[in-house]
Amino acid sequence: MTDLQRWTDLALAPLKAAGEALVDFPALLTHERRRVAITGLQRSGKTVFITAFAHALVSAKTQPATKALPFFPWIKKVQDVTLHEVPGIPRFDYEGHLAALQATPPRWPEATRTLSAVRIRIRHEPESFLGRRLSSSATTDVDLVDYPGEWLLDLPLLTQSYEEWSRQGEDLAGAPERADLAAAWRADAARIDLDAPEDARLLRRVGGLYVDYLRACRTERALSFLQPGRFLQPGSTPDDGLFFPVARLDKPKRGSNGAALVARYEAYRRLVRTFYATVFGRLRRQVVLIDVLTALQQGKESFSDLALAVRTIAQSFDDLAPAYLKLLPFTGVDRLALVATKADHVTTDQVRNLAGLLQDMTGALLAGADGFQAIASVRATSEVWNMVDGTSLPFLVGVPAGGTMPKKFHVGVLPGAIPAADGWANVGFRIRTFEPPTIPPGAPLPHLNMDKLLQFLLAP
Question: How far is it, in rounded angstroms, from Cα 126 to Cα 138?
């Protein structure tokens, strides 16, 4: 079975399940399913987040109520918690990633780069009066679906024609921070005769130059807004499926180079649409993890590009909601969480500023939304206050990457809003990378604000 066939089958599964539920009334009251799709822009800590999310649910039964995360709606009624596969999706290696965090010495788990998922099945006392009359036990399945952040950047393509996407792509390529990296593919693309019969070899060569440009933007300039996202994953797109922006294309002739580019773009959009129909098949919640701190430290260009990606993603979810409701009647993203990770890399008095930076990235979009959060999935630092020149200042305490002993660091002040154009030179903030904390056997994972985020995601 091909990926496309598997995704199509999965996209239809919610409709079949809903139809079955209509004839199984008791199941409606005693068996609930929830799906949370989780992705992140590069270096955002997605694997650690999903591991911590799953661990909070798995350990809810065994942890005393005083230590368990208070978000858990069934905390006093849990009977059993088990892990399962999500049909048709490779299993997220929760056990392996947790073992890395709990090892001696602990280590951060390897990043996940492909689609995976895990189902946490919670058996608990029924919550409703009628449910308790029908059964002594109810089941809630929480599906955590992990997909690459690069794929998230393909979402805006669903509302753009090839012409619109090309204009945007060429405008970006002409920006000062990208122009030199884009020169090779732009020069060759400009020489293509768009009305000439399709030359697959030529399109493959120029398409390869375009992929090289995207990769250079990511590795050399730490840029984030790179489309199509799957082009950044080796082997994800065949050479005869590559395309690139050509804004001068107008009404291409059948069988021409121009027509081939449009056809490849539309085929890619169908792939994206099918994938998101699958991921959103039973989705009510979407999490987007964002490494705001690294982009801030790398400077104005990197931060501005990340802000463009965040705004575009937020706008796409807003624009596409009605379309998905028409495509799949039982579908809808009713909660979108935009999450700044690595909040343990700043002192607690700066966490509010970190969330404010993220919210400022979206501009007027999602104004007043509850889904802006700043968290540490697994907290690697603690905090102390020391006197410096007669002033009490907060310091982080943690084991620096590659080290074995904890040290104290003063990281500076984080701006609570995007700096003005002439204010970047005054950003006196420096982040560091830390080793994971030592976690005693059976202890909950230390965190920062995970309880607030999971409450937002799992509350009815």
Answer: 5
For the chain, give the percent of residues with pLDDT over 70: 82
CB 345 within 8 A of CB 293: yes
Phi then psi dihedrals of residue 336, to 5 deg: -115, 120
Residue type at 426? N
User: What global pTM score does this model have?
Assistant: 0.86
Contacts of 292 (CB under 8 A, 6+ apart): 306, 340, 341, 354, 357, 358, 361
Query: Does position 291 have pLDDT exceeding 90, yes or no?
Result: yes
pLDDT digits (tens, 9 = 90+) for 82-114: 999 999 899 999 999 999 999 999 999 999 888
Residue 14's contacts (CB-CB under 8 Å, 6 or more residues apart) are: 281, 282, 328, 330, 331
Task: Give the pair of three-digit tokens for residue 354.
Answer: 């970190």
130-134, 237-241, 260-264, range with the lowest pLDDT = 130-134
User: Mapped to the 3 state alphabet, what secondary structure does 222-233 carry?
Assistant: CCCCCCCHHHHC
Residue 251 phi, psi (nearest 5): 50, 70
| Separation in Å, CA 212 to CA 205, 208, 303 | 11, 6, 22
Report residue 369 as tokens.
């939304």
